[in-house]
Design goal:
Blueprint lengths: L4 E6 L7 H15 L5 E6 L8 H8 L4 E4 L3 H15 L1 E7 L3 H12 L4 E6 L8 H10 L4 E4 L2 H10 L5 E3 L27 E6 L8 H13 L4 E7 L3 H12 L6 E5 L5 H6 L2 E4 L8 H8 L3 E5 L2 H4 L7 E3 L4 H14 L2 H4 L1 H12 L1 H14 L3
Parallel strand pairs: 1-2, 1-4, 2-3, 4-5, 5-6, 6-7, 8-9, 8-11, 9-10, 11-12, 12-13
């Protein structure tokens, strides 16, 4: 891509940069050495109120567009930037078919390559929608964030050229071993603390976690569940009450924090009983930290290279209970070997490896 420029378009407006933006920043730095400038466009609920990290990108000299979701207005912004900045490649992330229409319109009047990055599995569609999206995405090169995601793309978009690159983790963000205080979250000193990220209550399997822990506690365990959320706090509380009939004192609903390693290191066990994932950053980050990791055996997690990882049958409450008990029995064995564990995980999932492989994908798409 020597001398050619790149535009990332993302339906991403999280409160924190997260691993996604850190990954793009590493890729950006690598591409600069080849004379490639990266530009950014983000879909926002309110284009006049970007997140602070977006403003920081602008302060650092990056050109950032804010897109509203209005197909024609966004098309004009995208087309103008592409023409002005000699952009030869557009790389999309998390965007919907409606949002992609702006890109497709811009591409009708310009000459650039498009890459659609699938960060979750491609879902099957009815006949009419399937025909429509294959028509709209017909010019896309597709990248899956894991081999499992790749196979779902292969099934739904057989004619598109495609590949996969396993997600990479920005380990510098979570390298510290400091932990949050139990007192900060009103946790008991002698309990086993389980941590789960639950903004999408059923997809993340929070319902399975609360059912399992309720049973385990009734059978003599002393487990507390910390549910970390960037949004939907009240909805999660309501869902727990619907499932159990009450909000138990062992369930602690907290706001997400940017120094997430503090939570991983505070927890004894990280839970990912998910029903659907692309390639979960959180499982790998937790495996890199002090806590033991319990996860469902869905395809995106089944083949993760996670030392001391414990798997349970997808959607099976009893199997999850057994896995949690096994993690309790393992105790701090993983922590004693943490240096070796971290080295193995870095070798498999570093963001530096991810950036190098994405660059190779870009070279495949050079005009």
């Amino acid at each position: 891509m020597n001398g050619k420029n790149l535009l990332h378009i993302a339906n991403y407006a999280a409160k924190y940069r997260g691993n996604f933006i850190e990954s793009l920043s590493i890729l950006d730095s690598n591409l600069q050495s080849s004379g490639v400038t990266s530009f950014y466009a983000f879909y926002l609920p309110d284009v006049d109120n970007p997140q602070p990290w977006m403003v920081d990108l602008e302060k650092a000299g990056k050109k950032v567009l804010y897109l509203s979701g209005d197909v024609f207005a966004d098309y004009k912004k995208i087309r103008e930037l592409i023409k002005k900045e000699n952009i030869s490649l557009v790389h999309t992330h998390f965007i919907t078919i409606k949002q992609y229409l702006s890109v497709a319109l811009a591409n009708a009047f310009s000459n650039f390559k498009t890459i659609m990055h699938f960060h979750n599995h491609s879902q099957k569609a009815g006949k009419l929608k399937s025909i429509l999206r294959n028509l709209v995405y017909r010019k896309c090169y597709m990248i899956g964030c894991s081999e499992s995601v790749y196979h779902s793309i292969e099934e739904n978009f057989p004619k598109n050229p495609k590949s996969f690159v396993d997600n990479g983790i920005y380990f510098q963000r979570i390298d510290k071993l400091d932990r949050a205080s139990r007192n900060e979250y009103n946790l008991k000193a002698d309990s086993t603390v389980c941590l789960i990220f639950g903004f999408d209550f059923f997809r993340k399997g929070v319902d399975l976690a609360v059912k399992s822990i309720e049973t385990l506690n009734k059978n003599g365990q002393n487990i507390e569940l910390v549910i970390s959320l960037s949004t939907n706090l009240e909805a999660v509380k309501e869902n727990i009450i619907k499932i159990l009939g009450y909000l138990p004192e062992w369930a602690h609903i907290i706001e997400a924090r940017n120094d997430v390693y503090m939570l991983y290191n505070m927890a004894d066990i990280f839970l990912s009983p998910s029903r659907e994932e692309g390639l979960p950053y959180s499982v790998i980050e937790a495996a890199f930290s002090r806590c033991n990791v319990v996860m469902s055996d869905i395809s995106a997690q089944k083949y993760l290279k996670v030392p001391y990882g414990i798997w349970h049958k997808e959607g099976d409450v009893s199997s999850l209970e057994e896995a949690i008990l096994k993690a309790i029995q393992i105790g701090s064995e993983k922590e004693y070997n943490l240096e070796q564990v971290r080295e193995e995980i870095k070798n498999n999932y570093s963001v530096e490896r991810w950036a190098e492989q994405i660059e190779m994908e870009y070279k495949k798409n050079e005009q």
